[in-house]
Amino acid sequence: MDGKVSVIVPVYNREKYLENSVLTAVNLPEVSEVILIDDGSRDNSLNVCKKLESKYEKIKVIVHDNNVNKGTSASRNAGIKHASAPFIAFLDSDDIYHPNRFEKALKILNNDETVDGVYDSYTVRFENGMEDIRGIREKIPYHKLFEELIAGKKGRIHTNAITLKKEVFDKSGYFKEDLRLQEDVELWLRIAWHCKLVPGNLEEPVATVIRHDENLMDQTNFHSKIKYYESSLNYFKNKQISFNCYWLLWLKLVKFRFKNKNIAQFLSGLMSNDMFFLFQRMNKQVK
What we know:
Blueprint (H helix, E strand, L loop, with lengths): L4 E7 L6 H9 L4 E8 L6 H11 L3 E5 L8 H11 L4 E4 L5 E2 L5 H9 L5 E3 L2 E4 L5 E4 L7 H10 L10 E4 L2 H5 L10 H12 L2 E3 L7 E4 L11 H15 L6 H17 L3 H8 L2 H14 L1
Parallel strand pairs: 1-2, 1-4, 2-3, 6-10, 7-11
Antiparallel strand pairs: 4-9, 5-11, 6-9, 7-8
Protein name: Glycosyltransferase family 2 protein
Organism: Natronogracilivirga saccharolytica
InterPro entries: Glyco_trans_2-like (IPR001173), Glycosyltransf_2 (IPR050834), Nucleotide-diphossugar_trans (IPR029044)
């Protein structure tokens, strides 16, 4: 029998949007369970979660010990570990799935055991009603995806529009809980290195990201970008990635350190172990 999906939904202060969001997952036939992880919400979100759990058999609610706020990464990780389906997907608690969310992804995953995950396109809906289709907009061979994600010129993978085998996390690890932003981008990079990710539905979006005052984040948060590139460089330091990939990661780290206008940190970065490893790899390539 074809495998179904566990949908992981971290929840923090989203009582206004939560039910509408969750129902777009519950009503999909490919979904066997929707796991809501309340992340220490201070509003009525937990009560909404429990109400939905009592009403829909598919819904399960998890609460962190002592109702503490652990962050999105820790909440998603808890959901993954509690999931019972062979495939994992994610949904942010103020966004929505489309009826076609898993049509192509599950067809690929159930028919090709070599594939570890499928990414699709998605839309972003703004408060003025405008929508913008996003995602990786062209088919990239899976063995080139890692480098393309680092380059960042062909789009990005969004959390709401990727479907993965549960066993992928045994290969790549889980979300980094010390990253409060860019944690998804960092994980997709690790998964692209360790696993086979292939394109699914790039023409018709499978989910919508809804932008509003409560979820708009500072896309120029230099500190979060710095932490992301530092974490990636540290992880791939001893992996056999190409010199070009390592060089590009390091250049982007330096760029954001410089944009952060912390000259001491910028200069320190130039003198860091990253630079040593960079030249070490350069020497190996020359030889």
